[in-house]
Amino acid sequence: GPGEYAQPSTLYGSHPMLPVAGRVPKTTTKRSTPSDALTMGGTTPAPHDYKVTADGEFGSVAQAKAPRYSMRAKISDPADKEVRPGATSYTLGNQGRNGSTETQKWTMAPRGSGIPKPTNQPGPGEYAQPSTLYGSHPMLPVAGRVPKTTTKRSTPSDALTMGGTTPAPHDYKVTADGEFGSVAQA
Length: 186
Prior knowledge:
2 helices
């Protein structure tokens, strides 16, 4: 079928049946391939062979940078030689440019001068309010709404302090022997 036999090129005039003049000059030297540079120690540089930074500068040499200017030193003012008091040598206190910054001060009589103190009497929450859930009202006969029980109810913290049966995360087996990963993974 097609492709079973090698088809020689007629580019160099080497047809097996017909005399054909060559279209390009025939050369006998072997052309290099890109992989030759890797296997034969070619001269193709690697990325680390390029110098892309300049000593003493930040970033790549190809990056655009802001213009650089140099300025001469400021000329000293002869008035600077004059001895003047510093900014912290003044004590202004509470004075501003428009006068004193203090607010007016008024005196007032103490609060307890005309109001009598309240008498000592119990306030809300002073006495225990018994529940009527079990039929134990102190003044009115009330039938209980739920059966009265004397057993102690457990709290969520009891499972932690008394060795309850609630399992911890490390109590679960989530891996299978000889297999990688969790058993719940597909």
